[in-house]
Each structure stands twice: as C-alpha cells, then as structure tokens.
Amino acid sequence: MQDGGAAVSALDVPAPKSAGPGAVIGWTVVLVVVTLGMLAVRARLNEAHVALLFLLVILGASAHVGRALGLALATAAFLLFDWFFLPPYGTLVITNPLNWLVLIVFFATSAVAAQLLYRARAEADAARARTVEIDRLAVLGAETLNAGRAEEALLAVASVIRGTVGVDWCDVYMREPGAGRVVLAARSAGGPLDGPAVVAEGQLVHWVAEHGTEASILMDGTSRVASSVRGLPEDPEASLTPPNGRRALPEILRVMFLPLQVRDRIVGVLAIGAEDGLDLRASQRRVLRALSYYAALGVERVRLVRDAEHAEALRQADQLKDAVLASVSHDLRTPLTTIKALANAIAQSGDERAATIEEEADRLNGLVENLLDLSRIQAGEHRHEPVANEAEDLVGAALQRVSGRTAGRDVIVTVSTDGDVPIVGRFDFSDTLRVLVNLLENAHKFSPLSSPIDLGVRRDGPWVVFAVADRGRGVPAAETDRIFQPFYRPADSPPDTGGAGLGLSIARSLAVAQGGSVTYEPRDGGGSVFTLRVPALDLSSLETGG
C-alpha cells in the first residue's frame, strides 16, 4: 500500500473484475466443442469459416472473462487452426506460404479484438465509477444544503466522507487564524486512538495545519510525514517519531491526515482512520480528494459564521454602549446645572471654595457634552452646514476660545497667503471651530508649558490646511492608529491632563463628516503635528455666483 502522502492519479481506469475458474473452464470447453464441430464438417469449410468461428469464441471469452483468457484462447486457436484445418493435417508444418498470412492475420485480429473489448469494458466500469462518485457528491451537496447551521453542515460532510470512503471515523479540525491552534470542528464517529498515539495525532494535526503536509499514523503507532502541497520537496523517508521512540516500518496506515485548503490557505485538517488499517483504492482516493474540498469549504463557512456572529455581538454591544452613554450623559446635565447654580450662590456669600466647585462642574459638563456629541456623531444624527468661511476668522475664534485655558503659553500663528487673497474654505464654522479648539487644547495638555504651540494655516490645492504643532513627547509608532479611538489615553499620560480621551476622536469625526480629515505625524526635532484639512473654496466661483 502507498504512503499516506502518495499522489492520487486524477484518472485511474479500474481493471475489470476477474471471473471465477468456472468461466475459464467453460470457455475452454466451448473452444473444444467448436473445434470438434468444425472437424466434423472440415471438408465443407474453408479458412475464412474457421477463422470467423474461432474469432467468435475469442470475442465472447474476452467480453465475459477478460483480456488474459482472450489472448490465451487466441493462442490455442492459432495452434488448433494450424493442426486441424491447414494441410498437411495433424502437423504444425505449413506448406502454402499464404497460410502463414492467414494465421498471422487471424492471431493479430484476435489479439486486437481482445484488447479492444478489454478497454471497452474497463472504460464502462470507469464510467460507472464516475457515476457513483457524482451520486455521492450530489448526496453531499444535498446534506450540506439541508443543514441549517454551519456546524451541522460540516458534520454532514464528515459523515458522508466516512460512509463513502468506508472508514471507521472521520474528524475535521479547524485552524484558528492568529490563535496558533487547531480545534476539533466535527467528528462523525467515536474517538480514533488510545494511548501514546493520541499524542502523535495531536502533533501531526498541528504539523499538517502549519506546513500543509499530508501525514499518517501507521499500524505500529509510528508517524510519517509525506509530500507537501505547498511546494516543499517530497521526502518519503521523513518521519516524526512518536513518544515511544519507534520508527516507521510497515506500510499499512491506520490514520491519514489531509490539509484542507481554500484559495492557497490552509484552513483545517481532515483525519480519517480505520482500526484494521486503511486500504483505499484509487477511486476512493479520488473521491476523498473531492470530498475534502467540501470539508475545507465547510470549515471556512464555520469560521465566517463565527466571525459574523462575533461582529454582530460587538455591534450590538457598541449600540448598547452608545445608548447608555447618551442616556447617562443626558441625565447628568440637570444635576450639573443645579450644582453650578448652588456653587454660584455660595460664592456670593464669600466662600472661595465655591469657585473650585463651579470650575469642576464646568469640566464635568464639558465631558458630558463630549459624550453626547460622540453618541450623536456615531449614530449619524449630527447635522452640519458647510458654507464659505475665511480661515483667519476661524483661527481668531479658536484662539479666543482657548485663551483662558492656555494662559501663560505662547501660540504662534503663521498664515501663508497668496498676496492679499484670503484663504477661504467650505466648512461648518461651529464644527470646524470645535475641531481646531480640540487640537489646540490637546497640544496644550501634552507639551511643556515653556514651549510654544505653532499654528500654521495655508492653502494646499483643494484643501485648507490647519497644522497644530507642539514640542511634547509625541506618539509612539505603535499607537498612532489608536489615538483617534474614543476613550483612548496613553498608559503613561499624566493624571492631571483632564478629559476622557474623546477630543481627537470627536475632532476626526467632525472633520470627516464634512469631507475633511485629521491626521497625525511626528514633528522633526520631537513633538507632534496634528493637521486639519477642510475643502477649500475658489474665490472666483464666489465672484461669479458659483
């Protein structure tokens, strides 16, 4: 028997089944009877009559028994023809040279006819085998289509493989991407192995999933790795020795492991086995290859369904989170308003601590506003009205808004214009003002008070660009994709920076909503540069009413 990784031919014509000895004896008797019958009327027969009658017997034997008997009877008929029906009778001597031509043509015709009948019978058997394979694939398709869940469909595939190939068990393992492990996804029968072989099975399953290499466990418990479907060189002598330390000696397989592949990607492993050893014919191996692809698609379907279910669970959790945030934020506004009013009344009585209460109430109120705005933006309920606005007006409003929080720090503004032509963009003034304020406040929080904040404004093709640069610690490369996520704050950020990690997330969301963007890049010499881009507006279109 071939090794577990031996290649299976895509077109193996099965040999016709051999008839029993009774059929051989029967056709031999027929040849003898026909010969005796022709001897009785030999005087009235010519060479053509004899050749046709012998050929008829040879064709019947070839069709009923096989090529070997047809050729044997052709040889016997050749000798009988010469002995009984070509003069001089009773000898193998041929006096007429033309009789040699008769005998040679007769034998050649008999041999060719026997071969043609053999091929026709073999091809008929092959066609019947293909019909059976198609029926099995049709059954498999019906089984998988009728299964409601992906796991049930995969179990149906395993059961069909077990019944079709005729093995004791069929297991389908699924490879979990990124997890580095392979888990059992479907089992059509009981557990395959006991004792040390279980350890070898687990090792081979992971080996096959990792390398795309067929493997097998032999009857003596040794494990063998065969050729690879990923282009690794075939090494029939390569083997994995199980814990018992014995090497592979017999060629009889007990368990075979096949990699399951979808679009050049290994998605799982198919394991089939039999307690008395696997004895797979070429047709069974061919069917196994076809069915293993169904198993691969079943594993991929299970994975996709699980990913979809996980994504749906995350989506529902995210919706629930947004609903809770919106509800809690809305409910916090009323008590905050009351706290601030009471703090103001206490401050009128001369208590200086009321100012601290009012300041913290404002801070908490800002957090509540951010939570409400974030929930509206993510729900698609935030409305904006992009109109023509000058960039310098936006910068002036932003500096005025942050002046109280950035007291004691210099903000250096650089506006690059083309002569006296102002920079005009098409954006929602209120939303874009909030974005720019968030970027300025972020720079203030995460940079030393002694270093200034640089704010550059310029026209860059179809964009109006606002670049806020600081000399803070910058952002580690591994975190550049996370800084715009809600509630994200660096693990080592100072506890007194305030906020809840919503500023950058809200800034990017508001910019994207009106066709712009907010990006980050490290600043030369240390620090960060956050760049806001909004659509620019051509002044000529304003003058012409465009």
State which percent range the strand residues make up.
15-25%
Q: Name the helix and strand elements from N-terminus to C-terminus, one letter apiece.
A: HHHHHEEHEEEEEHHEHEEHEEHEEH
According to CATH, what is the topology of the largest domain?
Answer: Heat Shock Protein 90
| Global Rg | 44 Å
What percentage of residues falls in helices of 4 or more residues?
40-55%
Tell me which CATH architecture of the largest domain applies here: 2-Layer Sandwich
Number of strands: 14
How many structural domains can be distinguished in the coordinates?
A: 3
Number of helices: 12
CATH superfamily of the largest domain: Histidine kinase-like ATPase, C-terminal domain
Give the strand order, joined by hyphens, for the main sheet.
Answer: 2-1-7-6-3-4-5
The end-to-end distance, rounded to whole angstroms, is: 83 Å
Secondary structure category: alpha+beta
Please, what is the average pLDDT? 76
Shape: elongated
CATH class of the largest domain: Alpha Beta
Q: How would you characterize the largest beta sheet? A: 7 strands, antiparallel
Q: Helices and strands in order, then pairings?
A:
Layout: H1 21-40, H2 47-64, H3 67-85, H4 97-146, H5 150-165, E1 169-176, E2 181-187, H6 196-211, E3 213-218, E4 223-228, E5 239-240, E6 253-262, E7 265-278, H7 282-348, H8 353-378, E8 387-390, H9 391-402, E9 411-416, E10 424-427, H10 429-445, E11 453-460, E12 463-470, H11 503-513, E13 517-522, E14 528-535, H12 539-543
Parallel strand pairs: 9-11
Antiparallel strand pairs: 1-2, 1-7, 3-4, 3-6, 4-5, 6-7, 8-10, 11-12, 12-14, 13-14
Helix pairs in contact: 1-2, 1-3, 2-3, 2-4, 3-4, 4-5, 4-7, 5-7, 7-8, 8-11, 9-10, 10-11
